[in-house]
Amino acid sequence: MSEPSTSPSPSSGSAAPPHRYSASLANEIEPKWQAWWAERETFRQPNPGEPGFDASKPKFYCLDMFPYPSGAGLHVGHPEGYTATDILCRYKLMNGFNVLHPMGWDAFGLPAEQYAIQTGVHPAETTRSAIDNFRRQLQRFGFCYDWSREYATIDEDYYRWTQWIFLKLYDAWFDAGAKKARPIAALIEGLESGDLRVGAEGEVAYAAAGAGGIGLLAHDAPGVRRWHELNARERRAFIDDQRLAYLGEQTVNWCPKLGTALANEEVIDGRSERGGHPVVRTPLRQWMFRITAYAERLLEGLGDLDWPNSTKAMQAEWIGRSEGAEIEFVLDVEGADPAIDADVPPMLRVFTTRPDTVFGATYMVVAPEHPLVSAALAKPRPETPVDDLRAYTDAARARSDIERQEAKDKTGVFTGFYAINPATGERIPVWTSDYVLMGYGSGAIMAVPAHDQRDFEFAQAFGLAIRQVVYPSPLYPMWWVGNHTTPEELEGVGDEEGWLGVVADFMGYVTTNEFDPSLYHESFGTIINRRRRPYSDPPPEREGLAGPRTADTPMASGSRRGSVRSTWVEAIQEMKFTSAEDFCARMADPIRVVRQGEAYAEPGRAINSSNDAVDLNGLPTKLAKARAIHWLEHSGAGRRRINYRLRDWLFSRQRYWGEPFPIVFDEHGDHHAVDASKLPVALPPMDDYQPIESDTPTPLLGKATDWVRTTAGEAGVAGLDPDAPVTRETNTMPGWAGSCWYYLRYCDPKNTERLAGEDAERYWMDGGVDLYIGGAEHAVLHLLYARFWHQALHDLGAVTTPEPFTKLFHQGMITGFAYQRPDKSLVPIDEVDESGDDAFVERATGEAVTQVVAKMSKSLKNVINPDDVIAEHGADVFRLYEMYMGPLEASKPWNTRDIVGLSRFMARAWRLCVDEQTGEAVVAETADDGIERLLHKTIAKVGEDIERLSFNTAIAAMIEFVNAASKADTASGGRLTRDQADRFVRILAPFAPHAGEELWAKLDGPPPVSLAGWPEHDPAMLKADEVEVPVQIMGKVRARLMMPADADAKAMEALAMGDERVVELLAGKTVRKVVAVPGRMVNIVAN
RNA sequence: GCCGGAGUGGCGGAAUUGGCAGACGCGGCGGAUUCAAAAUCCGCUUCUGGAAACAGAGUGGGGGUUCGAGUCCCCCCUCCGGCACCA
């Protein structure tokens, strides 16, 4: 293979050696090697079945979150993650992997469209030029992407398959019995054969229900109909309602400023995630994805993923699984006129996580949007305050989400209705209040003011009854111990929560020590530790991942604040015992221990909870719940139920710059799919992007009238008369659509038959994407949507793996410095002067400001442009600096001053191998043993550190090696032998690939070094014969002795005890114990 | 309030399994080289006391377990990210 020639770098200063490593040298060799790689397609990775593919190698699919190519160009944050994956990929290549490392463009999106609105330039034009700029910038970093796989989501060849996936989900339903998606055809088959029937509320009824899982509707449930009992319209409506992609009338988040509706996930604090514009709620008929059907699987699937805890927790929280019960409260309409009350629903169905507190439900609340409120307004009850109620519901509807969240005080109005509490038989009032949300559960609650803080505040505000039905669990055994002393009675209380032993110790403590309330915290710690048994809170009842959270699970909680234990400690602190007698006497009084003015929402023991059919009294909350549910199911008043916070995913946008839906509507308004063979449905050209001003959200594509009005034949709809007039769907897909499956397309980006060839998909996606690196801002949105599509596609046989991303990693944000005035306001960096040692003053005022870390922003003038940094230092130094700043996952400030350290390192490394005068390789004849050992150690360390993405320590190890080698004897002409330099350059190359290639070429290695093997290391060389061992006396290091590395504990002890200084220090003391850890240290205990 | 993280020199950070705290880099100080500067090279650089040897303190604070704790346990504080009237 030929080696590109390097001309001597132009001398910048008169004295600088001609071949010194410098920015100008870097800017010369870097583009040269980039061109070399591109020309030879060094990083082109063939697919299975293609020439050059080696099936004997293992695969490694390493994915970066592809960027949205903005007009502003690359930010320093982009190359952080990209450099990390690049180093790892190069390392894997050197270790004999087939590496898939692709890059592409997430190119549909709002910024390009907004720019088009302002300037009239077509979004495709601005996007294409932004892509060219991004590509240029990324290539300047020398990343080893397989550019032959590049594509953009706006390519028709790509979004054709995005539309295809939409149709796949459109043509599928979620079979709750099988817990997976199946084709619509299977649903129709099931209905026609009679296996499936149609429920009263449009659900699927199963023959096997009852024996099967929870929530399945049985054939014999009330109102269930057979398929043949439905007419054609009903059948169509039923089927359309079952689709994974369905048209739903929803209250949507409409953002007038952006001119589009947004998904729940895109709305934060009542404002749009992008741009922070106000969002209002308005009803709209929109395409939705039935992601809620996958709630359980999306949650369960998290357990097996190697993802950051925070991200798993956020997804779990977003899915929001709650276990509890559904309870029916019959409305008390006795004595009312049946004719008038025909429209009133017979009962209120509520969801609760605390069925054990049903005896404490003293009133009910429905959301202002609840049908019962409309019923109360239409046909008022005798007690209904009609005017107040109307005023309240009107106000609640007008209130934006922001205002709702800001309101603290509980407000509400009585509806005039009463319901019967199924546990107590009491007649309880039904109120409406906006603290109950229509979108969660059934929009109605049973209120238990004694044990729910919100209900408590509401009851206080309106003078409603409060009944305590739970006694604080931690105090319950203490209270019991205070009153019952016989072993039999203690037995009776049960100790399944593990409290009694600790209570016994605490009793011992309070009876033998003086009381000091301020020491309660410490004494608990002491007691718990003295018992030497793992202390555990009652098993978690919180929603989240399945299974107990122990220290071994990735979800283990670091914080125990707010736990039952904290409640206990707080309650005891507040009681301020003064003596042991006081303790025993007051623990006997249950009322004293409940804090005033607050609901007790923690687990405890049930009290005041029994009727003729069920008795919960004395049961711990967990058991009380189970018994309450058992009773509800038997009495028919309710059933066990799992509720999710997750809502269906709103998929329609009213914008231009997105994928069109492959859907048309016929004259009846029924929707039809465009035939898959007729895809893509191309985005029509337009030159007017102004949003349509309208009270009702109107899609922009409506302006393309020639495109919208077409015929079934023209649009490619099978099953309709080709001449039948149809109108196209004018909404477009959101930006998430393209990024939901892009990782699949990389497997086989040119395939025209499938979204990716089967062999390619099976090979690269085997076990999922091996490593996915990107920002934590996508923790919920992109990563949840992509998992949903993937799981659905897996069900439907389009992909082979159940989860897309096996290992996920978030790189931290690169921040910048800013300066803060005493009042905490920030000052741009160009308005600040340094006034001595790390002190800063604001130029305008002369006042002192302090340096703080802040997000890079235009207003703070602290944005770093990667192009500038490369011009000043070169890409290799840039890469090294970003990797050396700190742990990849940490957010770190860019400090321009620090980069020079990596420049110096590169120069030293270069000088280690190259004569700065001649530019020739300089090598020693003989190897220095110490350097050889250090090289082995460094090779091992760098390899391990790359594997665990600890690039900062890997670089530190290489710096150490270069520093040590630079100091080595130079008598033989060089510091490293050719063989040593060869090995060092190979480990340096993944980090600084251009300099790596250049040095490799100088050392006569055949390029590219990128495909040379990773050097071996000999584990025997990592061990020294003699090690320095610290000798501690009472835990303090008092001496350091050289000892044989393989000395055993006895020998070490003897050596330590024989040391002069140790003998001196031990004079007059008795040696109690000696602990010697071979190869580590010796500790002598003496007094 | 809830969930997830973090807190170590002047600064960025290291310490992988409970075993020498501060690797490595920046900055600073001193020196060599130079007419001079840059660059480069060498030495020192946690704090306190001391000329030094050395002694004491030290990983946000308080307690505990252990021969030994930055690391494990308990309590508290601060900061960052996320969620939030979710029944």
Task: Please provide a written account of the structure.
It is a single chain. The protein has 1087 residues and is an alpha+beta fold. Helix 29 (899-913) packs across helix 31 (951-966) and helix 30 runs antiparallel to helix 31 (951-966). The structure holds one RNA strand of 87 nucleotides.
Strand count, sense and barrel status of the largest sheet are: 7 strands, mixed
Percent of residues in beta strands: 15-25%
The whole-angstrom Rg is: 35 Å
Helix content, binned percent: 25-40%
pLDDT averaged residue by residue: 83
| Low-confidence segments | 1-14, 489-493, 495-499, 513-569, 588-594
Distance between the termini: 72 Å
Number of strands: 38
Task: Choose one word for the global shape.
Answer: globular
Given helix and strand content, the structural type is alpha+beta
What is the count of DSSP helices, taking H or I runs of 4+ residues?
35
Sequence-ordered SSE layout with sheet pairings:
Elements: H1 23-40, E1 59-64, H2 77-94, E2 98-100, H3 110-119, H4 123-139, H5 156-170, E3 172-175, E4 180-183, H6 184-193, E5 196-198, E6 204-206, E7 217-218, H7 232-242, E8 245-255, E9 260-262, E10 267-268, E11 271-272, E12 280-289, H8 295-302, H9 309-319, E13 321-331, E14 347-352, E15 363-366, H10 371-378, H11 386-398, H12 401-406, E16 413-420, E17 427-432, E18 444-447, H13 453-462, E19 470-472, H14 475-483, H15 487-493, H16 500-512, H17 520-530, H18 564-575, H19 580-587, E20 604-606, H20 621-635, E21 638-644, E22 649-650, E23 663-665, E24 671-673, H21 705-708, E25 709-711, H22 712-715, E26 725-728, H23 736-739, H24 742-745, H25 758-764, E27 771-774, H26 781-795, E28 808-810, E29 814-820, E30 826-827, E31 832-834, E32 840-842, E33 848-854, H27 866-873, H28 875-884, E34 892-893, H29 899-913, H30 929-947, H31 951-966, H32 978-988, H33 993-1002, E35 1026-1033, E36 1036-1044, H34 1049-1058, H35 1060-1066, E37 1071-1077, E38 1081-1086
Parallel strand pairs: 1-2, 1-27, 6-7, 15-17, 27-28, 29-34, 35-38
Antiparallel strand pairs: 3-4, 5-6, 8-9, 8-12, 10-11, 12-22, 13-14, 13-16, 13-21, 15-18, 16-17, 19-20, 23-24, 23-26, 25-26, 29-30, 29-33, 31-32, 32-33, 35-36, 37-38
Helix pairs in contact: 1-27, 1-33, 3-4, 8-9, 14-19, 16-17, 27-28, 28-29, 29-31, 30-31, 30-32, 32-33
The structure holds one RNA strand of 87 nucleotides.
